[in-house]
Every structure is written in C-alpha cells, then in structure tokens.
Amino acid sequence: MTGPDVVVVGGGVIGLSLAWRAATAGMAVTVCDPTPGRGSSWVAAGMLAPVTEATTEERDLTRMGLASIARWPRFAADLEEETGVDVGLRQDGTLQVAFDNDDRRALDHLAAVHHDLGLASERCSSSRCRALEPALSPGVRGGLFAGDDWQVDPRSVVAALREALQRRGVPVLRTAVRSVGVGPGGRATGVDTDDGEFRRAGAVVLAAGADSAKVAGVPDAARPAVRPVKGEILRLRAEPTEVPFTRTIRGSVQGRSVYLVPRLNGEVVVGATMQEAGYDTTVRAGAVHDLLHAAIDLVPAIEELRLVEAAAGLRPGSPDNAPLLGASGTPGLLLATGHFRNGVLLAPLTADALVEVLAGRPLPADAAAGCAGRFQ
Predict the structure, then answer these.
(1) Quick one: residue 360, left, alpha or beta (phi over 0 = left, psi -120 to 50 = alpha)?
(2) Which helix (H) or strand (E) holds 309?
(3) Bridge partners (DSSP) listed for residue 248
(4) Which terminus of the chain is less hemmed in, N or C, by CB atoms within 10 Å?
(5) At what angle do helices 72-83 and 343-358 cross, to 10 degrees?
(6) Beta bridge partners of 159
(7) Is residue 328 a contact partner of residue 372, using CB atoms and an 8 Å limit?
(8) How many CA atoms lie within 13 A of 358 on its CB side?
(9) In terms of DSSP bridges, do strands 29-32 and 6-9 run parallel, antiparallel, or are they unpaired?
(10) β-strands 188-193, 198-200: how paired?
(11) Would you give the DSSP letter of residue 202?
(12) What is the C-alpha separation between 341 and 314, in angstroms, rounded?
C-alpha cells in the first residue's frame, strides 16, 4: 500500500485536532474537506461547559467533558507554542442566571444536579450576580457561578490547527469525499474524492460532523447514527473596552435559553437555538428576534452593540447526545463524530483517544462512554 497512515474525512475542530495529534505522534496524515474549518466549528460559540450543561441523565457525558476540559490548558499551550496563535482560552468561569420564578426553579434543579454529581458551583443571590457582572438586569432573580466552565475562540482554534498542520507538512485537501473504499476482505482501504482521485490509506477516520452519515460506501452496520440539529447564533461587536460584561453569561428568560460569550477583541456571541430541520442552514428572522430579546433582557447594555453576523450551523446529534469514537465495526474505518453541542469541549479528549486507537490500543477509559460500537 502507498499513501498516508490516516485519511481524516472532515476539517472541523474535531478532524483538525485529531490530525494534528496524530501527526505529532509521527503518523502520516491527510485531511479532506472542501471548506476546512467553515462548518459548525465556524459557527460555534466556544463554551467549555461540562458543569452548566450537566444533567443526571448524561453522567458519562459529563465525565467525558470534565476529562476533556482538563486537557484544554495543555492543548491550547501546545498550539500557541507551535504556531504563535492565541486560541482565546479564558478561565473566567460562567454565570448561569434566572430571570423569573420559573427560571429560578430550573436553577434550583441545576444546583441539585451539581450536588448529585459532585460538581463545583456557587449559588448566588441576585445582588451577588450583579456584583460579579454589574451590567446584568435588575430583574435577575439569582444564579449559579461555575468557575470551572471556560471558553475558547473556535475560529482562532481552527486557524491555529491549520497553521500547525501546514508547519508539519500535513495536506489539508479542499475536496469532498464521495465514498469510502472497502476492499474484498471488508477492510476500508481509502477514499474516493471529488477531484477524481482514490486516496489509499491505512485507516480512514470519519470526522465530518453531521455529514458523516452521508458518506457513501460505508457499510450499513458501520454507518454512524448521527443527524443534523440546527443552531442559529449571532455575533455582536463593540470596542474591546466597551463590552459591558467580562465572563460567559447563560440564562433563561421566561423559559427561553440564551447565552452571551464575550471576547477580548470586542465580539459578543449570542446563541443558540436548536431545531430539527434536516440540513437547512437558513437563519430565521424569529430566531434572531428571540435571541436578541432574551439577551437584552439579561444584559440591557448590549442593545447598543452592532449586529455583525447571523449564522446557522448543524450540530452532529447522536441518539444519546454523546460522541461516537473509535472502531466502527468495519476494519480500518474509525469514527470521531456525533459530538452534538460539545465538539469544541471534547476536541482534546477526542484527538488523544483516536490517536490511541490508530496506534492499535484500546479506546482510553475516560473516552469509553463514547465507544462507537454501543449502537451497533
């Protein structure tokens, strides 16, 4: 066989991360994506939020999130050392707030979940919330501060990863994968691409997010159980010194969930809706209205900021909201998809786990809840 050790199908934050870690481990890697870094990773807000997104029904996913966020400082430092690109890792914590009594009861439930799972969060009175973030509305009824929930800038992460791969000589080919080639023995042998080439490889990793289930040639038993879940998001802009708050604010306003993520460059990301709409990526006027209405209710000062972007992305949802990692059931074909709302958070853990599997070792214990075979 001639060709790389690994072909990664998909150039989002997951595919690029595992390609970089695989190259760092000495593997020959090729990435295929017609628009690398421009899918759901480009739209993502970049919250690293295993605590404020925890649920009792998803204990294993929460543990995976905690294992991955613990890797983020080293992951970010390695990227910056290799490329000089600051990926915007901020460890300011996240403030989750309630706007009315119903929202406060939901906050009580979240606090109980944190206690049950042994997660660290601080219950805050309304005055304590405004002491942390003075720009909050006087109508805020209380909150939870999660100091261990952080953020990064996904666009900077993708830029850094692409720079790191370029420096290591890893090809990132701007071509779509038509199908996975499977040999007579039932082993994946490479990929057919839109440029008319068959690219032979020792292993193929499907890391194409919501598109992973659409790649032809994958045997039915190995096809990942992922679907697109639409999310609309807004970007506002101010001068860096004029952003009215300093840390991620998440809240519920009369049942409408919203988050606001401030960047040091003056950007504020507001999101996000969730809609089962197939592969539609149009932005609905009603979604823009609802997001802005809820965000302004929480932080009135943001109505003075400029609206510079409205976009929609497709989260790769799985049946249990956890990713599909590792062996697919077809030899030579691995999965790294189905990360749903947690692609950026789980990128370091996913990359490390897939490198282990590519090296012939088992899926690591802290990633085992994402074992791809659980739906086969």
Answers:
(1) left
(2) strand 306-317
(3) 94
(4) N
(5) 80
(6) none
(7) yes
(8) 30
(9) parallel
(10) antiparallel
(11) S
(12) 10
Amino acid code (one letter) for 86: D
Express each pLDDT in 157-190 by its tens digit: 999 999 999 999 999 999 999 999 999 899 999 9
Amino acid at 315: R
Strand order in the sheet with 172-173: 172-173, 29-32, 6-9, 203-206, 333-337, 324-327
Q: Which of 207, 215, 259 is nearest to 52 (CA)?
A: 259
Determine the pLDDT at residue 272.
Answer: 84
Dist. CA 283–CA 280, nearest whole Å = 9
Q: Rounded to whole angstroms, how far apart are CA atoms 292 and 99?
A: 15
Helices (H) and strands (E) in the chain, counts: 9, 19
**Exposed/middle/buried for 163, CB within 10 Å: 0-12, 13-18, 19+?**
middle
How many residues in the chain?
376
Q: How far apart are CA 170 and CA 27, in angstroms?
A: 10
* Half-sphere exposure at residue 287, Cβ-oriented, CA atoms within 13 angstroms: 18
Which residue stretches of the chain have pLDDT < 50? 1
Question: Which residue intervals of 135-224 are DSSP H helices?
Answer: 154-167
CB 214 within 8 A of CB 18: no
Determine the 3-state secondary structure of 13 from DSSP. helix
Cα distance between residue 177 and residue 32, in whole Å = 7
Token pair of 301 as six digits: 């000062």
pLDDT of residue 170: 98
Question: Which strands make up the sheet holding 227-237, listed edge to edge?
Answer: 122-124, 142-146, 94-98, 248-253, 256-262, 267-271, 227-237, 306-317
CA pair distance 18, 342, nearest whole angstrom: 15
| Sheet containing strand 188-193, strands side by side | 177-182, 188-193, 198-200
pTM for this predicted structure = 0.97
User: Hey, how many other C-beta atoms are within 10 angstroms of the C-beta on 35?
Assistant: 11
Q: What value does the CA radius of gyration of the chain take, rounded to a whole number of Å?
A: 21
112, 10 contact by CB (below 8 A):
no
Q: Which two tokens stand for residue 253?
A: 């306003």
The residue to which tokens 């990132």 are assigned: 172
Residue 249 has which token pair? 């604010």
Contact 201, 22 (CB under 8 A): no
Largest CA distance in the chain: 68
